[in-house]
Amino acid sequence: MEIKEKIAKSVAQAADIKSAEILDLLETPPDPKMGDVALPCFRLAKTLRKAPPLIAQEIMDKLTPPAGVSSMQAAGGYVNFFLDRTAFARDTLKAALAPDFGASDLGAGRRVVIDYSSVNIAKPFHIGHLSSTAIGHSLYKIYAYLGYRPVGINHLGDWGTQFGKLIAAYKLWGDDAEIEKDSVSAMLRLYVRFHEEAEKDPALNEQGRAWFKKIEDGDSEALRIFGWFSDLTLREAKRVYEMLGIQFDYFTGESFYNDKMQPVIDELREKNLLEQDEGAYIVRLEEYNLPPCIILKTDGATLYSTRDLAAAEYRKKTFDFHKALYVVAYQQSLHFKQLFAVLEKMGKPWAKDMEHVAFGMVSLEDGTLSTRHGKIVLLEDVLSRAVEKTLATINEKNPDLANKEDVARQVGIGAVLYSTLSAGRIKDITFSFERVLNFDGETGPYVQYTHARASSVLRKYGKADDPGADFTALDDADAFAVIRQIESFPAAILAAAEKNEPSFVTRHITLLAQHFNKYYYEHRIMDTDEKKTNARIQLTRAVQKTIATGLSLLGIAAPERM
RNA sequence: GUACCCGUAGCUCAGCUGGAUAGAGCGUUGGACUCCGACUCCAAAGGCCGAAGGUUCGAAUCCUUUCGGGUACGCCA
To answer: What is the pTM assigned to this prediction?
Structure first.
C-alpha cells in the first residue's frame, strides 16, 4: 500500500496528474517477470491525447524512481516498476510481526449488530444452520478486529402457531421421560405425528390454535411446557456452539418482541402508511417496485414482518448501531427488502444501515433438506465425524502427539468451518460427507498444517529475532510471493468487512499457505549464515502469525502441532 | 406471469469498481521423503469464461436480448 502511494506520488509529479487518480490506476502485473507494480497508460491517453506507449515512455523518462523502487521499464502501454525486494521484505515483515497486524481502529465507537444462527425451538440443529452460524461468527470476529463493537444476536425462532400444535401433541401423546432423554428428536416426533394425524382429523388444528392462544395469553401451563421445550432445545444448541467455539451476546428470540409491536403498528397508522386490503393491514411498496408488506392478518394477528419491524426499532434504540446485519439465507431476500423499505417509508434514516447478508441454500445429494420428513444431517454428527476422521489420521501419522483429542477437535471442526467459509457465501451448497471430510488441497487442515509446520521450524530455531537480519536472503521470487501475500493481508480483512464476505479471508490465507509451502520446498530456512537464516525465520514467523490471525477471524483454531 | 440470484476446466470454485498469455483445488497420469513436519511439493493433460448482439483502444468483467438452473412472490417463519 505504502509503496504504491509513493509510486503514485512520483508519477503524479512527472505527468502532472492528480496522485489519487494514478493510485487508482496502479495494478499488479499478471506475471512477476513483467514487474511488481504496473501503471497502464491507456486511460491517460484520452486526456493527454497521445498514444499509450508514448505516454509510458515519457513518464518513465521524466520520473525519478521513489525509494523502494529499484528499476522501471516501459512495455506496451504500461510502465512497470520493480520493487527493491530487500527493502520491501524488511518493511513488510516489520509490520507483520508487530502486534495485531491488520487490526485497525476504523470502527472505534461503532456498534455492528449481527443477527445470525437463529435456531428454532423444538427443531434439530442441522447443516442448514451452519452457514448462518459460521458466517455470522466470522463477521463478528472481523468487525471486532477492525475496532468495531459487534453485538451478536441469536434471534431464536420461538414464536408461532407451530408451538401450539406441539403442545397439543404433547398433551395427547407426550411422554416426559422420552422427551427428557431424546430432547429435540422427541419433540420433532410429536410434531410430525401431529401433522399426520391432523390430516385425518382436522379438529386437531383447532387444539393447536387453542394452545397457541394460551401461550399468547400467558397461561401458566402452556408457558411451563413451552419453557421446558425451549430449555431442552437451547441446551442441545449450546452444546454445538461450544464445539464450534461460538458465543452470542443475546439470545433474544421472536417472542421477546411480543410487547414491542404495538408502538410500531401505531406509528404506521399515524404516518398513514397502513392500509386495509382484503381484510388485512398492509403497507404498499409500489414505489420500490415491491409487493405490499402485510403487517396484520385479517384476524388482527401479527406476522413475521411486524416482529422484525419491532426488532429493528428495538435494536436501533438499544444499540444505536452503525450497521445491522442479518445473516439469513437468500430465500428471505424479498422479506428483507420489504422490511428495509417499510422502515424507510417510516422515515427512519438508519434503514440504509441495515443489510441482508444472504447466503446460498444447503441441500443433500438426493434433494432438499426437510425437517418434517427427517431428511436432515445433524450438525453435531458432521462435527463428530470430522473429529473422528482427524483422530484416525493423527493416530496414523503422528501417534505420539500430546492432547490428541483436543487437536483432533480443532482440526476436524476447523475443516467443517473452512468448507463453509471458502466459497463466496451466495453459492448454493450440496452437502456431502465426502467433500467435507476431504482434507487434501484447499482445506482447513491444509492451512492448519502449514501453520503447524511453520511453528515447528520456529521451535527448532528457538531464538529471538535478530535486528541485524540480512534481508537480501529474501530477494528471490518464491520469498517475494510470500511477502506480497502477507503485505496484502490487512487489505483482505478490510475487503471482507466491506463486502461482509469472510471467504476473502479464507482465500487469502489459503494462498499464503500455498506460497509458503512452495517456498519451504525450494529453500532451506535454517543454514549456516545466521543473518540470512534470521531473515528467513522472520518470514516464517510472519507467515505463522498471519495464518493464525486469519484462522481466528474465521473462528478456526491454529494448533502448533497436529 | 413478475422480481432477484447463479451459469468460468470432468467436479468444487477464484477472478467480475474493464487492462498484458483466463487461475486454484479435487479427480486423472507421471514424478519428489538419507534433508527444517509428504495432511506437503513438482510436472502433464484439461477452457470459443452458457449463447448472441452492443459499448470500448481493450470485455470472463459493463449494457441489451436470449437459453439453462435456483429462489421468492398478502394473511408460515
So the answer is: 0.96
A540 touches strand B (CB under 7 A): no
Distance between CA atoms of residues A507 and A221, nearest Å: 52
Judge if the beta carbon of A300 is closer than 7 A to nucleic acid strand B: no
A481 CB less than 7 Å from any atom of strand B: no
C-alpha cell of residue A484: 506480497
Residue A464 CA to residue A28 CA, distance in Å, equals: 34
CB proximity list for A319: less than 8 A, separation 6 or greater: A111, A113, A151
Q: CA-to-C1' distance for A460 and B37, Å?
A: 11
Specify the 3-state DSSP secondary structure of A347.
Answer: coil
Nucleotides of B under 7 A from a protein CB: 3-6, 12-16, 19-21, 23-27, 36-42, 57-58, 70-77
Tell me which DSSP letter residue A139 carries. H
Rounded, the Å distance between the CA of A424 and C1' of B12 is 12
Give the span between the Cα atoms of A466 and A156, in whole angstroms.
53
Minimum-distance nucleotide, CA of A461 to C1': B36
- Dump pLDDT digits (tens) for A126-163: 999 999 999 999 999 999 999 999 999 999 999 988 99
Quick one: DSSP state of residue A120? B
- What is the rounded (10 degree) CA torsion for A182, A188, A192, A194? 90
Whether nucleic acid strand B comes within 7 Å of the CB of A192, the answer is: no
Tens of pLDDT, residues A261-281: 999 999 999 999 999 999 999
Asked if A413 and A383 touch (Cβ cutoff 8 Å), the reply is yes
Q: Scan for cell 503514485, then name that residue.
A: A8
Q: C-alpha angle A48/A49/A50, rounded to 5°?
A: 95
Does any strand B atom come closer than 7 Å to the Cβ of A17? no
Please, are residues A274 and A302 in contact by the beta-carbon 8 Å criterion? no
Q: Are strands A280-283 and A293-296 parallel, antiparallel or unpaired?
A: antiparallel
For residue A80, the cross-strand partners are A38, A73
Do strands A274-277 and A149-153 pair parallel, antiparallel, or not at all (unpaired)?
A: unpaired
CB A83 within 8 A of CB A36: yes
Q: How are strands ordered across the β-sheet holding A78-83? A: A37-40, A78-83, A69-75
Q: Quick one: which H or E segment has residue A146? A: none
Residues of A (353-382) placing their beta carbon closer than 7 angstroms to any atom of strand B are 361, 368
Look at residue A199 in the predicted model and tell me its pLDDT.
86
Q: Which helix (H) or strand (E) holds A280?
A: strand A280-283
Strand B and chain A: which residues 75-94 have CB closer than 7 Å?
75-78, 80
Amino acid at A285: L
Residue A301: CB less than 7 A from any atom in strand B = yes
